[in-house]
Amino acid sequence: MKIKKEIVFPDPGQSFRLFKPRLRNSFFWHYHPEYELVYVEAVTGIRHVGQHISSYTESDLVLIGSNVPHLNFDYGVKTEYHQIVVQLKENFMGDAFRETPEFSRIQQLFEKAYLGLSFYGKTKKIVAEKMTAMQQLPHFDQLLNLLEIFEILASSKEVTELNDKDTTVKLFFDDKIRMGAVYKYIHAKYDKSPDVNDVAASVHLSTSAFCRYFKKQTRMTFTDFVNQYRITQAKTLLLKGSSVTEVCYEVGFQSLSYFNKLFQKLTGENPSAFKRR
């Protein structure tokens, strides 16, 4: 369950890979030299790219740069979901991006992808439709469609940079923590009382060393990470029909007022408003 290098092979007769992974029962904390464009539709899920950890609701569209560690976007998803992924080398068009003026914006897009770029609004909607339609096209038309997608992304202002610095795999090569073990522990204990001392012992570190390391790698405290995970699970339960009060206690909170306050802080709306929407 340590970080893994994924070996990517383009589809036969193509310069990139287009596929629909189904990995929700697997923890796949990984990296690869190829760039990756992910579109996923799900009730809610976890977005972990580089040092950025958050949740997404309904859908997510993210461009991930070369050798940036990331978790599969369907990890732990408990409802039906739809996912499309494109993987390609930076030079999949040879030197065209660098030498062709018309591709200059796409080149700039690729240069920023190491931060992890999340797209929203109309951009996400249009690109999602194009990625879905791509699967039925001949190879040459798929390539043209992909170039159109990158031009749309490169021109868009509807984008959020997930990280504020380089988080490529060199940062994680000395990783003594098995992130999979941390996620597994939290998934088993989030509705009870996760103990930082227990998880530190499970990865063979003192509690203080674990806390320092965890904060450095994720920019979150262990408590903040657990609460983020709880709120992600709460979204799923709310949309399955449970009441706000039921969900509060089911995901491990002891105070309804604190649950409401934290939900509002992390999602921008209270649980009742989220459920109605």
SSE inventory with pairings:
Blueprint: E1 4-5, E2 16-19, E3 29-31, E4 35-49, E5 52-64, E6 70-71, E7 82-88, H1 96-99, H2 104-112, E8 117-119, H3 121-134, H4 139-155, E9 159-161, H5 179-189, H6 196-202, H7 207-218, H8 222-239, H9 244-250, H10 256-267, H11 271-276
Parallel strand pairs: 1-3
Antiparallel strand pairs: 2-7, 3-6, 4-5, 4-7, 5-8, 8-9
Explain what you see.
With 277 residues, the protein is α+β, with helices and mostly antiparallel strands. The protein has two domains: 4-161, Jelly Rolls, CATH 2.60.120; 176-276, Homeodomain-like (Arc Repressor Mutant, subunit A, Orthogonal Bundle). 42% of the residues lie in helices and 19% in strands. The strands form two sheets. A six-stranded antiparallel beta sheet has the order 2-7-4-5-8-9. A three-stranded mixed beta sheet has the order 1-3-6, with no helix packed on it. The two termini are 37 Å apart. The relative contact order is 0.13.
Index terms:
alpha+beta; Jelly Rolls; Arc Repressor Mutant, subunit A; 6-stranded antiparallel sheet; 3-stranded mixed sheet; 9 strands; 42% helix
- Rg over CA atoms, rounded to whole Å, is 20 Å
CATH topology of the largest domain: Jelly Rolls
Fourth CATH level, the homologous superfamily of the largest domain: Jelly Rolls
Structural class: alpha+beta
CATH class of the largest domain: Mainly Beta
Mean pLDDT: 90
> Domains counted in the coordinates: how many?
2
Approximate strand percentage: 15-25%
Shape: globular
- Helical run tally: 11
Task: Report strand order across the widest sheet.
Answer: 2-7-4-5-8-9
Described by strand count, sense and barrel closure, the largest sheet is: 6 strands, antiparallel
